[in-house]
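Hi V.,

You were right to ask for the full record rather than a summary. Here it is.
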Amino acid sequence: MTTTLTSAVKPRAEDSFAITFAPLSLEEIYAKSDDPANGAVVVMSGMVRNQTDGKPVIALEYQAYEPMALRIFYQIAADIRLSMSDVNRVAIYHRVGRLRVGEISVLVAVGSPHRSEAFEACQYAIDTLKHNAPIWKKEHWEDGSSTWVSIGACETSGENC
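Predicted structure:
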């Protein structure tokens, strides 16, 4: 699957996407991905962890260029449907603002008749989001310092950010 932005992709009515300051809800995203034809719903939850490379983290701060990020989310769903036409629902939500350790920063959910497609589509969605979406995070360290990190840089550097 490849992501191209040569033309604006319109989201499907059954899909759901957002960049939000509000806390993310697993139950809400699951419900948005559920469909009577599903045999599986796979949900990926990304959370703020308490360290990076052994260095204590107290919070993360996310910023996004929302119009472009949403276009990337729409394209991800379109790409999934090109290669896995049975997928019924795609939901991609990302938080912005300052998040404490343990808070959910991103939720991706895919509903499909078969689990293998749901797993594959969910993996593709989170990997592509991290690589392509204009979303940045600032790591706030326990020692009072902070560092901005491009999420895409995590993928290219081989780090699991």
